[in-house]
Write a sequence for this structure.
């Protein structure tokens, strides 16, 4: 694809994304960063974990995004009594002819909302995360490919521990992004009250984007230029999370485990998608620094000493991003 054609295609994709963002923001107020990360996950096929206290529009944002696209959507409310078969499906016996037929579960959709994922037991979480990784599900003796695109957007509440089953760190690593949702500003909350303080608040979203448009935009992500110096910058950031002393970072005692190579891959892909969202055909260091916290916060594990000093992985990642020289 010629440079001019690529720029025109990226501009068209950027306009499509703006239309999608506008449709979602017609319902969700004051969470632009969260909505952009959801779209970023859609463009890369990377699953997203949303973490925040109740009432911050996590579920509403995912619902609105799904409704703004002509795509198949399913919502799964995770509960302690949920079984893997409730997620992926099961075999149904037909007494007429003594045969079994597969009944597919709600995971067979383009966008799957796993609401309060940490409320389901480990075997259900494992079934979901295996499907996320393999992009297929086995029911009985038959393996079924999942729909394309296939995106899991999961939510969890960080303040309640009773009746929850925290995701193991190795499983959390399957999510490309972990996004922490914060409270809206005072002005944004006033706008929320103006719009939503009604017995029938406006929550409907009309489809504005076709799946084919999303597919074209996803294909363009791979064509966004990632300069060798940016690749080196990404690898240096991830390497610094494992060996901070090599970069004169006093973080050894604060880091239990650094980020895996999956972090480098995710950081590169996410930076390219972020550039596309901004309407650019190339990645800048600003793209890497923008998506860095969401890619790394669940992959850099703080030590007990760090937790004792009230230092979390966000602060550690930010120190790394601040200290590594920009190319």
């Amino acid at each position: 694809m010629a440079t001019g054609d690529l720029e025109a295609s990226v501009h068209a994709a950027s306009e499509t994304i703006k239309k999608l963002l506008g449709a979602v923001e017609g319902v969700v107020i004051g969470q632009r960063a969260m909505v952009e990360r959801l779209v970023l996950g859609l463009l890369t096929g990377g699953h997203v974990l949303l973490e925040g206290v109740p009432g911050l529009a996590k579920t509403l944002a995912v619902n609105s995004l799904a409704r703004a696209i002509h795509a198949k959507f399913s919502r799964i409310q995770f509960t302690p009594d949920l079984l893997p078969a409730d997620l992926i499906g099961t075999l149904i016996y037909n007494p007429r002819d003594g045969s079994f037929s597969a009944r597919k579960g709600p995971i067979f959709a383009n966008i799957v909302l796993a609401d309060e994922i940490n409320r389901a037991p480990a075997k259900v979480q494992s079934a979901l995360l295996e499907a996320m990784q393999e992009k297929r599900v086995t029911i009985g003796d038959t393996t079924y490919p999942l729909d394309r695109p296939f995106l899991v957007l999961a939510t969890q509440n960080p303040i309640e521990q009773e009746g929850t089953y925290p995701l193991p760190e190795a499983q959390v690593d399957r999510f490309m992004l972990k996004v922490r949702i914060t409270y809206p500003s005072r002005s944004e909350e006033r706008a929320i009250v103006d719009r939503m303080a009604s017995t029938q608040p406006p929550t409907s979203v009309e489809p504005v984007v076709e799946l084919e448009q999303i597919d074209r935009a996803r294909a363009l992500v791979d064509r966004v230029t990632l300069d060798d110096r940016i690749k080196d910058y990404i690898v240096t950031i991830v390497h610094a999370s494992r060996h901070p002393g090599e970069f004169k970072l006093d973080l050894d005692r604060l880091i239990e485990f650094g980020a895996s190579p999956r972090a480098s891959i995710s950081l590169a892909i996410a930076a390219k998608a972020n550039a596309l969202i901004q309407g650019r055909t190339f990645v800048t260091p600003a793209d890497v620094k923008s998506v860095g916290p969401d890619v790394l916060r669940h992959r850099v594990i703080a030590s007990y000493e760090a937790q004792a000093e009230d230092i979390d992985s966000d602060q550690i990642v930010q120190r790394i991003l601040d200290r590594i020289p920009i190319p």
Notes: The two ends are 27 Å apart (CA to CA). The longest helix spans residues 3-25. The chain has two domains: 3-185+211-218, 224-323. The mean pLDDT is 87.
